[in-house]
Amino acid sequence: MQADYLLILGGPLQGDKPSELLYERIKTAAAYLKEHPQMQAVCSGGIKGKNQRLSEAQIMKNALLELGIEEQRIILEEQAKTTLQNFRFTKQLVGADAKVIYVTSAFHIWRSAFIMEKAGVNYIPLPAPNGDHSLGFRIRERFLRGLVRVGIII
Question: H-helix or E-strand containing 141?
Answer without folding.
Answer: helix 135-149
